[in-house]
Each structure stands twice: as C-alpha cells, then as structure tokens.
C-alpha cells in the first residue's frame, strides 16, 4: 500500500526538523556577517576592498558550483545523504576561523562553508518542496528561508555584540561549533529521504520535460532565464551589502555593537517577511512580485549613498530586506512552475548555481569599483544594475509552460 502523501499537514514532523536544520545552516553564515570584514582590517591589516571581499568570492564560487552538482546528484545519491555530507564539511569552519594566522586560512574556511551551504541549504529547501507538493510550495520555501535568514540576522547581531565585548576572536565563532554539531546530528538521526514524494508528484504532473535543463534554465527558456538572471543580480547586490556595509559603517564611526545591529536588520527583515511573501507567491503574480522586489532593492541600495544616521541605515536595511523577501521565495516557486518534478532538483540547482555565483560577482565587482572609484560609486552602479534586472523580468518572464 502506498502511504506517501504530499502536503504540509501530512508531513509536518519532517518539515519541522528541516526548518530547525536550516536555522543552523543560516547560523553558520551569520557567524561571518558582521565580523569577518572587521577581522580582515583589524587582525590582518588588509585595506584593499578587493582583498577583503576575497572570502565572499571564495564562498560564492564554491556554493554556486555545489548548488549545481547537488541538484544534479540529488536523485542519484539521495537528498538525506547530501545533507549529511554538507554538515561534515561545516565542522572544521569555526576552528579554522578561530586559529587562522593567515588570510588564506579564512579563504579555506569559506570554501568549506560554501560546500556546506551548497549541500545543506539546497537539500533543506528541495526536501521541503518535495514534501508539500505544488499547492503550498511558496509557503514551504518562505518558511525555509524565514528560518535560515532570521538565524543569519540573529547570529550576525550576537557575533557583533560578542566581538564588541570580548574581541573579534575567538568567542564569536564558538557559536559555530554548536551549530555544526547539532546540524549534523539532526540530519543523521531524524531526517528521512524524500525521493518517494517526488515520484508521487511526478505521476500527477503535466509540466513538459526540458530538453537541456542547464541551457534551458540558464539561457534559452525565456521565463526560466529571466528568473535566473534576477537571482544572480539579487545575490550580487547581497554580496556588495555583506562585504561593504560593515566597512561603510566602520568608516562612518559606528561602534561594533551598532554595526552588528545594522548588519542584522537586513537579513532579519528579509527572513521574517518571507513567512508572508512565500505564501503570497502561491496566490499572486510571481512575475510582478519579482519585478517589484528587484525594483525595491535597487532604490534602497542607491539610497545608501546619502545615509549617515543610525535611523537612516536602519530604514534602508528594512526596505532592502522587504524587497529581497518579495523575490527570494518567489524565485524558487516560479522556477518550479516551469519544471517537471523529476527535473526540479536539477533545474533549481542550475538556478542556484547562477544565483549564488552572484555572491562572487558582487564581491569582486564591488571590491574593484570601491578601490578604483570609491565606495559611493560602487553602491550607485550596483543599485542601477538591480533596477535594470527588474526591467528584464518584465520583458522575459511570461506564463507557465511557455518557451
């Protein structure tokens, strides 16, 4: 007898475990959000913005490549197995960051962290989508991203506070030791694979198969490629905010505690809002949510140029978080609209490859622009690029099932 059922209510226990695990995944990113750019300048004496951003570039490239292969291997190796492997790679990260005496060790830690995020975050979101089916896909993604990014924000604040009170090292990174151990144990002991749920959904799907999943998702399918380019630009500007905002705030004389608060507002709002925007993407035009969210981000980024006060930076972080929340669950929900369940993991892996390559592109581009033209020009150009991306969505994204 077939006992596999799709739905959030029917699979709430597994779904809840995966939510908790993704909170730990997000916590590993939060470790670095407010501390590493300061660590580069204070402990290692690195002043070049391009060199400071090298840890984000290493992270972004590694996570992007892992995203692609994770999607491609999900059906072959198994979703649970990939999740466990991802946590194994996370275990050394906090220890390397604590004891690193050379910036190359920090880059190595971020390569390992990129593998962890590419495997663990990808599997957490894909398994949730597998469990709930098509009707509440946006809600599932929203809850997943809520857990991950609220954790990023909380841990970014905590590490900023700890760094201000006890120093940049080693105490902020002790949190990561706990996150990695708990994430690994939960994944081994309590998570069950969801491949049978995919098989159940595949028998009901009428979505046509893609001929070449990577090429279609990246370039030739108008809607899929329109969504994918926006994902890349979204993380490109996030890479800029991640690397540049702490330095910008430090240059304006903010304390480490206030830097921790201000760098936490953006991911906190982003995470909290996805509880609502994820559900919104189930019932409202995904195209218009993507357009509005990218436009919102672009305007908020440009506004950073004139910001000086704590309140202004806090407001901009809130607006940027709202804009990102509109697009983040919608990206994944929209990609799934155009892909057959049997191809969904690989198509999402391809999308996430390009999206997270944006981290590296954003950090590299921002670093070069900031070094040669100044921080304000760097921010302006990234903001304009984000606005252009919103217009591409209007032109390319159409109705489901059209190529």
Largest sheet: none
Mean pLDDT: 90
N- and C-termini, Cα separation: 39 Å
- Form type: globular
Number of strands: 0
Query: What's the alpha carbon Rg, rounded to whole Å?
Result: 20 Å
- Fraction of residues in H or I helices: over 70%
Report strand %: under 5%
Compute the number of helices: 17
Structural class: mainly alpha
Order of helices and strands: HHHHHHHHHHHHHHHHH
Weakly predicted, low-confidence segments: none
What does the secondary structure layout of this molecule look like, with pairings?
Layout: H1 12-33, H2 36-42, H3 49-52, H4 54-77, H5 79-90, H6 93-99, H7 103-132, H8 137-166, H9 174-190, H10 195-202, H11 213-220, H12 222-251, H13 256-283, H14 286-303, H15 310-337, H16 341-373, H17 375-396
Helix pairs in contact: 1-7, 1-8, 1-9, 4-7, 4-16, 5-7, 5-9, 6-7, 6-9, 7-8, 8-13, 8-15, 11-12, 11-16, 12-13, 12-14, 12-15, 12-16, 12-17, 13-15, 14-15, 14-17, 16-17
Overview of this structure, please?
It is a multi-pass membrane protein. It comes from Flectobacillus roseus. The chain crosses the membrane at residues 12-31, 51-70, 82-100, 106-126, 146-167, 173-191, 288-307, 313-336, 379-397. There is one protein chain. With 403 residues, the chain is mainly α. Helices cover 81% and strands 0% of the residues. The protein contains 17 helices and no strands. The chain has helices spanning 12-33, 36-42, 49-52, 54-77, 79-90, 93-99, 103-132, 137-166, 174-190, 195-202, 213-220, 222-251, 256-283, 286-303, 310-337, 341-373, 375-396. The longest helix is centred in the C-terminal third of the chain and has 33 residues, at 341-373. It starts with 11 loop residues before the first helix and ends in a 7-residue tail after the last helix. The model has no long low-confidence stretch (mean pLDDT 90).
